[in-house]
Automatic annotation (TrEMBL):
TM annotation in the entry: none
GO biological process: mitochondrial translation; regulation of translation
Gene Ontology cellular component annotations, sorted alphabetically: mitochondrion; ribonucleoprotein complex; ribosome
Keywords from the UniProt entry: Mitochondrion, Repeat, Ribonucleoprotein, Ribosomal protein, RNA-binding, rRNA-binding, Transit peptide, Translation regulation
Signal sequence range: none
GO molecular function: ribosomal small subunit binding; rRNA binding
Protein name, UniProt field: Small ribosomal subunit protein mS39
Location within or outside the cell: Mitochondrion
Length: 681
């Protein structure tokens, strides 16, 4: 820095050493002198003239012309994308939606969803206040004024008192389609001639696209990401008799564009009878049918027909109509046909027909999209069908290509491909190829929601846990968990089986730690099998760690609130495993607490402890010379019908050095009356 400042001082005093910046002629070739212009008046002119003078002046000192490059249109995040490409994916960092602090990062799937949606809920609450009290937000606070911050610019703005055509257009542009329709209705009643056919058509198309609702805010990204978990209905249904139907009735005469918008909307929102009726009307009017209408009608063929043959006949009739009308198919047409075939994948000709569709696409010069391959995998790799390795051919076809989103269902390809690699082929190498393809360029953007992301990475880990070594699996596991994926109890249970199969039980405490962190420790399908695996391992160096896990299970179950709706009660297998694991490490007191709790609260427990657990506990209690507890265990064994333990009552009494009178009572412990009397001793 000091050297740079020194150079600046030399430049200010014009005492630059000769040749410091090169020759005099090429030191500053971009400089020009104001004296080059004849007068001050020459400096005044239009911006275009000033630019021309500047360029000409630039070219004078060196005698070379400057060629200005064409402007490159860039998005606001291009610089950030360029910087991110130099860093790569950080497996240790959370998603940007979460706070980058280990104390605040949510550790299970439910908390992650709540955290992300709560932030978005705050934005929606702010918009609600702006919409409810618009007068408080009309005074501009920014300079220059930012119109998006004003109440009038918010989605769902109020209908104007005296609507005009401009008001309808403004509401449509803002996505406030309900307000736009209200303004349209009022204006149509007063001065219908003011509404042009083009405006009616645009309003109809927007209402059809959004099913007569306001447009969804484009910046509510988290709601879209978790849409699968928060949507109340599986699919939105068409609003029969709604605003779109009313605008369509106002269009006279009916145009092909109006029919096309209504047919596509009815088909998209599953009003298949309405779509079919409108198509018949369109054919009767001899109106040209665009390719988009054929595409949507082909998609709903499985809803219009029941049998396999009738579905295919109807599909072929649509394709024949297109051919007769001279309508050229596009990518969506072929994808719609493949989707129909995937719905009838058990059809004996489904595979050959699907390959014929791909051949026809090639003949028409149409490149298949990821959705095309998605349907192809569904056709060839169905659950109860023969094994097919067509995924290898698909991956080879996609190798080296830059993938782009060309069909809305392109996002289904990667979850389907990983599912085929894992469940259908069970091939680790193929699964890794699919995974590498996802993380090539920007292909990870094809995972467009939380469900697809979870399914893809979950299936990837499941195929690795079944076919990789323990060391290689945990390398990938550490990269994905917990920042990319929160595992479920099924995956953790598969990991337990993998560790047991490879005889590496030293990883079991780590799996339990993850189960605790992710809130899966007390899951019904997780706890009993996990404790059973711990019990089957007898390594001396791990018995202390296993006993700590058993004690943790006891503490967590006992600490549950009594009024908890999903409270996990003690079960017989869990009691047996916890007791035996604790006894192996010499922890008699907590083991007895578990059994004593069962004796006192049998009605709150499912099942009963095993005879092995009671026998081991009795041996430890006898060695500790605790006859009262031994009596309770023997009484419990009598109630449960563990006769081997009951028959040893006399031997136990002798080992405890009890008086002869007590020994005689223990000999008769098998009878119900004596067992009942022992409870009062």
């Amino acid at each position: 820095m000091a050297g740079f400042l020194c150079i600046l001082r030399l430049a200010a005093t014009k005492n630059l050493p000769p040749g410091l910046f090169g020759k005099q002629s090429d030191r500053f070739p971009w400089r020009f002198s104001v004296g080059a212009f004849s007068s001050t008046a020459e400096l005044q002119g239009t911006p275009e003239e000033d630019a021309a003078r500047s360029v000409s002046a630039v070219s004078r000192p060196s005698g070379r012309r400057v060629k200005l490059p064409k402007r490159i249109v860039r998005s606001p995040t291009d610089i950030l994308d360029a910087l991110a490409s130099t860093v790569g994916k950080d497996a240790t960092g959370p998603h940007y939606r979460y706070v980058d602090d280990p104390f605040f990062i949510p550790t299970n799937a439910t908390n992650r969803r709540i955290f992300a949606l709560s932030k978005e809920s705050g934005r929606k609450a702010a918009r609600y206040m702006v919409k409810k009290y618009p007068a408080l937000f009309e005074k501009p606070k920014a300079d220059p004024e930012i119109s998006a911050f004003l109440a009038a610019s918010q989605l769902g703005s109020q209908r104007p008192t005296e609507p005009t055509v401009k008001d309808i257009v403004d509401c449509m542009r803002k996505g406030a389609l309900v307000a736009a329709f209200e303004a349209y209705t009022e204006l149509n009643e007063k001065t219908p001639e003011a509404i042009t056919p083009e405006l009616r058509q645009e309003l109809l198309e927007r209402l059809c696209f959004h099913n007569s609702d306001d447009a969804i805010d484009s910046d509510l990204l988290e709601e879209k990401w978790f849409a699968h978990y928060i949507q109340k209905e599986v699919r939105r249904r068409w609003k029969v008799g709604g605003p779109a139907d009313k605008v369509f009735q106002d269009i006279k005469p009916k145009t092909a564009e109006a029919y096309a918008a209504m047919i596509c909307a009815n088909a998209r929102f599953l009003h298949v009878e309405g779509a079919n009726t409108l198509l018949e009307e369109m054919q009767q009017e001899n109106l040209p049918i665009p390719v988009q209408v054929y595409n949507e009608m082909i998609k709903i063929v499985p809803l219009l027909k029941d049998s396999i043959d009738s579905r295919w006949e109807m599909t072929m009739s649509f394709l024949s109509s297109m051919n007769q009308a001279g309508v050229a198919p596009n990518l969506q047409t072929f994808n719609a046909v493949l989707e129909v075939i995937s719905r009838i994948a058990m059809w004996r000709r489904s595979r050959s027909t699907a390959l014929g569709v791909f051949a026809e696409m090639k003949r028409c010069g149409i490149e298949p999209s990821l959705a095309s391959y998605h349907f192809l995998l569904q056709i060839f790799c169905r659950e109860r069908g023969p094994i097919s390795h067509i995924l290898l051919d698909v991956l080879q076809a996609l190798e080296g290509k830059e993938l782009t989103l060309r069909d809305p269902k392109d996002s289904n390809f990667f979850p389907t491909a990983m599912d085929v690699a894992g469940r259908h082929l069970r091939d680790v190498a193929v699964a890794r190829k699919v995974y590498d393809l996802l993380w090539t360029n920007n292909n990870s953007l094809f995972l467009t929601d939380a469900l697809k992301d979870t399914v893809f990475h979950g299936n990837f880990l499941k195929v690795l846990v079944a076919g990789e070594s323990v060391e290689n699996f945990f390398k990938v596991y550490d990269e994905l968990v917990p920042m990319t994926l929160v595992p479920d109890s099924n995956l953790l249970l598969e990991m337990v089986k993998m560790v047991e199969f490879h005889e590496e039980p030293q990883h079991l405490p780590r799996i339990w730690s993850d189960a605790v962190v992710f809130g899966l420790a007390l899951k019904d399908n997780m706890l009993e099998p996990f404790l059973a695996v711990l019990l089957n391992n007898h390594r001396e160096d791990l018995k202390e760690a296993f006993a700590a896990i058993a004690l943790d299970v006891k503490t967590r179950i006992d600490a549950q609130f009594l009024d908890r709706a999903n409270r996990i009660p003690w079960s017989g297998p869990v009691i047996s495993s916890v007791v035996r694991l604790l006894l192996r490490n010499g922890q008699m007191e907590p083991a007895w607490e578990v059994v004593g709790n069962y004796i006192n609260k049998k009605t709150e427990t499912f099942g009963f402890p095993s005879e092995e657990a009671l026998s081991e506990l009795v041996d430890v209690l006898v060695a500790a010379e605790q006859p009262t507890r031994v009596k309770q265990c023997v009484t419990l064994a009598s109630d449960l019908g563990f006769m081997d333990l009951v028959r040893s009552a006399e031997d136990l009494a002798k080992r405890l050095r009890l008086p002869e009178q007590e020994i005689q009572k223990w000999k008769r412990i098998g009878s119900g009356s004596v067992a009942a009397s022992l409870g009062n001793i």
